[in-house]
Amino acid sequence: MQRKWMLVMGVILMLLGAGGFLLFSKLRPAQAGLQIETTPQATVYIDGDQMGTTPFELVQKPGEISIRLVPIATETSLAPWGTKVTLVQGVKTVIRRDFAEIEEASAGEILSFEKRSGNTATLTVVSTPDAAQVNLDGQNRGFTPLPINDIAVGEHKLIISQAGYSERQIQARAGAGYKLTVVAMLAKLDTVEANEESALAEEPQREKVKIADTPTGFLRVRSAPTKNATESGQVKPGEEYVLLEEKESWYKIEYQKDKEGWVTSEYAKKVE
To answer: Cβ contacts of residue 106 below 8 Å, gap of 6+?
Structure first.
């Protein structure tokens, strides 16, 4: 009889243990993910504690955390960086950072998510500095801060740009029922680079000359706009050259570096 009661009590304890395990599993807090990538490698501090080095991944309970990234010693001293992010249940927050000697020359992005009602995906792009142009999947969509409603679920390519700053290209994935927020931090170009970029942007498009098919398979370049002038060189059909000058039925081109000459419009035409 005693043995029978011991068996019954054993079964009861096993059932209670299993029930307790199931209850504990349900009460377990949901998890959130964090991924950090840097160039060059950096030490990762979270809420003041050293956690490891990049590339770094972490799974923990959702909530706000403080992050500080300190570049690992290189030949030059690079500027550390810190921020606060809110980790969201069931999704991964991604941080990327490219370090430079000063904060203004550094760049990066933060990709974070916020749960929304419904099954559509939305996107908000903000930047430092403001008023940067946003190109989404090859189409210019406006300037930051920019909300874009009801985008397709899946991978997208963002290009964030502003005069005087390095362009930033970002790959991001939009999820159904979530708002994706992209915070882009652009690197400021130095004065020389900014002036060169501005000059290139403002330089007017010059007309070109395209060489047409000829009976000989080439076209003679003359030293003057006449068929009696000496031959300076030869160009081939299909090649294009910047138009320097036009005189009657002749085009002046630079057919080689620092070498200019004239070709007849009989076998050449202007193109944009």
So the answer is: 78, 79, 81, 97, 98, 99, 100, 185, 187
The backbone region for 16, taken as left when phi is positive above 0, alpha when psi lies in -120 to 50, beta otherwise, is: alpha
Q: How many domains does the chain have?
A: 2
Say if residue 191 is in the same domain as residue 256. Answer: no
Over residues 86-108, the pLDDT tens digits come to: 998 888 899 999 999 999 999 99
Of 196, 216, 250, which residue is a domain's last? 196
Determine, yes or no, domain membership for 45: yes
Distance CA 62, CA 174 (A): 20
For the stretch 175-229, pLDDT in tens is 898 899 999 999 999 854 555 555 555 556 678 999 999 999 999 999 999 999 9
> Is residue 164 assigned to a domain?
yes
Q: Which two tokens stand for residue 16?
A: 């209670």
- Residue 39 has which token pair? 């160039």
